[in-house]
Amino acid sequence: MKTLPWEYGVRNLFRRPTRTALTLVGLTTVILLIFVVVAFIRGLEASLAASGDEDVVLVYALSSGADIENSSIPARTPALLAASLDGIQRRFDVQHISPEVYLGTRITVAGTDKKGLGLVRGVTTAAPLVRSKMQIVEGEWPGPGEVLAGKLAHSKLGCREEALSVGSTVTFDGREWRISGRFTAAGSAFESELWCPLQDMQTALKRQDLSLVAVKMAPGGSLADVEMFCSERLDLELKAVPEAQYYASLQQHYKPVRLLGWVVVWLIAGAGVFAGLNTMYGAVVGRVRELSTLQAMGFRRRAITMSLIQEAVLLSVGGSLIAALVAFLLVNGTAVRFTMGAFALRVDSLAVVIGCGTGLVLGLLGAVPPAMKAMRVTVVEGIKAV
Amino acid sequence: MTLVQVKNVTKQYANGEETITPLNEVNLEVHQGDFLSLMGASGSGKSTLLNMIAGIDEVTSGEILVEGTDITKLSRGKLADWRASHVGYIFQTHNLIPVLTAYENVEMPLLLLKMSAAERRKRVEIALEAVNLTDRATHYPRQMSGGQEQRVGIARAIVASPTLVVADEPTGNLDDETTEQILELLQRVNNELGMTLLMVTHDIEASEIAKRQIRLERGKLTERQAGSAKSTVTAA
Ligand SMILES: Nc1ncnc2c1ncn2[C@@H]1O[C@H](COP(=O)(O)OP(=O)(O)O)[C@@H](O)[C@H]1O
Ligand SMILES: [Mg+2]
Fold first, then answer.
1. Is the pLDDT confidence value at A48 over 60?
2. Average pLDDT value for chain A
3. Helix (H) or strand (E) holding B8
4. What are phi and psi of B11, to 5 degrees?
5. Domain ranges in chain A?
6. Domain containing B19 — which CATH number?
């Protein structure tokens, strides 16, 4: 089949420059919104997925449900675990067991009078051994009265990044803390936390207990051993949950949010189809005579339909590219505050596929019905149409 | 040589209760090199007959043989292909494509044929030359006068050297002077390029330039014989 020249479709886009431009803006906005929503969902998923380490087991209070913040376990738990389990990762005689206190608390950032809800984790030097993705990118490990700030902690607190730079101070639990450094953790939820020395935190909180113990298992070690320990020491009232599973259950928690996200994607896409349809109906209605003339000349209806689709797809692909560019430059990496921390919007390959794919479909869906309508006019009627 | 044979062609339209029969068992033969004019009252069915011969309208019954092919039996797609290589259509209003230049408009029918780019170029240039618009090749339709647009329309209709060129009131929208130019041009297309022409017109003067003059009245064709009274065109 002989197709219409490519320039025909391209030039038709410039026939009504204003309308084409408006449609382009509309389509770009729609596709950009889709990028934002998908980047949100992907960022959330990535943050939760990155947080769970396969060989780390969390030991915390049986009674605390899914929420570690409510957990309280005896301070001797780490020592007991170390003594009773063989399967724990060790190196240079140091067992990879991290006792931690974890809680959400009001934090005041120096220079601002606002109090933000932040997440604080009291840790020992064993924490980086267990949470191996954790990496100090600036400054140093916190000494007494100091905290290490995660890369996204400022987003969680709702302050500027500079407010948490090394040397500045924050106030929580009744005392002032100096920021000793900053860390990343491969996009995981830890990045929105503040880490401080366990002992200082216990002192400040006047508590001796722990929230949890994170244990890194050696290659041969198994979860079953830890579970066995928990069930044998009924007096401690502990449970063992693989870290990956813990965050997976949090992810379950956010299922409605994700679902809502996808619903929004569909709604936006639906609106986009109407924008495309409107333009293409407009473009085709005034062109019936020309399209019939092409048929009279010998162009097949399929060739003409394809040219109309090409026109719409050209426009929507243009919108997709602009939206993708804006998404990469402005949306990607933007930090979002969330109940369990903060995470960065992620324009990853899936977001690009979904964003640009939607753009393409918008073009197709917008062009086919108007093209079909135009093709229903008989050639004899069409060549005289006004 | 017989090019077109219209055999017992009837066209009917159902219009509510009544049926209109603009063409009733019509017969016509067109020969290679003919220049036919088709006259008749408005609404008599002239355009309908022309469109059926051009392969864009369907007959209710009868056959239309063009170079031996019964085009009424072709599928829609095949008919489109057939038109591409056999028919050049000159419209009442030029029907040029506004986003294409004169050159590109003329080139359009050639894109439907197997042809090298060089050959295409040569043919477009010859066609534009024939209508004396070489200097307007890069102009868009909106930059040309009505007469120039119609000449581009003629160049587009003849560029593929079709078996048959049809024109439906090609001067209907033009002033007297331009009409004269266009008629002269059509005559040259017939005389010098040897193309077979079928032209619908309601203008007696226009019809005079044709070699054969046909009238359509009450569903029937009559041909005016040179220098004699009317007589019915007989079946082939
Ligand atoms: N699609 C149609 N439906 C019903 N009647 C039609 C249709 N097209 C044409 N006609 C009728 O057929 C007759 C012939 O039309 P046409 O060939 O356009 O006439 P002419 O070109 O001689 O003026 C007219 O009476 C017209 O009203
Ligand atoms: Mg007519």
1. yes
2. 83
3. strand B2-15
4. -130, 125
5. 6-49+254-382, 74-236
6. 3.40.50.300
Strand partners, A105: A118
* Residues, chain B: 236
**Per-residue 3-state assignment (H helix, E strand, C coil) for A148-162:** EEECCHHHHHCCCHH
- C-alpha A276/C-alpha A26 separation (Å) is 9
**Mind spelling out the 3-state secondary structure of B150-203?**
HHHHHHHHHCCCCCEEEEECCCCCCCHHHHHHHHHHHHHHHHCCCCCEEEECCC
Query: Residues 6 or more apart from B143 whose CB is under 8 A from it?
Result: none
Which residues, at least 6 apart from A150, have a Cβ–Cβ distance to it below 8 Å?
A: A182, A183, A184, A185, A190, A191, A192, A193, A194, A195
Q: Please list every residue in chain B whose beta carbon sits closer than 8 Å to the beta carbon of residue A383.
A: 56, 91, 95
A232 with A85: CB under 8 angstroms? no
User: Residue B149 is encoded by which pair of tokens?
Assistant: 């647009």
Pairing of strands A175-184, A341-344: unpaired
User: Mean pLDDT, 10 residues at a time, over chain B (236 residues)?
Assistant: 94 90 94 95 94 96 95 95 96 93 96 94 96 96 95 97 95 90 94 95 91 94 70 49
- Report how far apart, in Å, the C-alpha atoms of A207 and of each of A98, A124, A198 are: 17, 16, 11
Show the tokens assigned to B102: 């004169």
Q: Which of B91, B92, B99 sits opposite A12 (nearest CB)?
A: B99
Q: Which domain holds residue B80?
A: 2-234
Q: Note whether A298 contacts B77, CB cutoff 8 Å.
A: no
Contact of B99 with chain A, judged by CB distance below 8 Å, is answered with: yes
The count of structural domains within chain B is: 1
| Ligand 2 ion: residues within 5 Å (CB) | B 47
pLDDT per residue over A127-185, tens digit each?
888 888 888 889 888 888 899 998 888 887 778 777 788 888 888 888 888 888 999 88
Complex ipTM: 0.94
φ/ψ of A185, rounded to 5, equals -150, 50
The sign one gets for the Cα dihedral B234, B38, B181, B31 is: negative
Structure tokens at B123: 């043919």
C-alpha A277/C-alpha A257 separation (Å) is 30
CB contact under 8 A, A11 and B84: no
Select the residue of B47, B80, B87 nearest A299 (Cβ to Cβ): B80
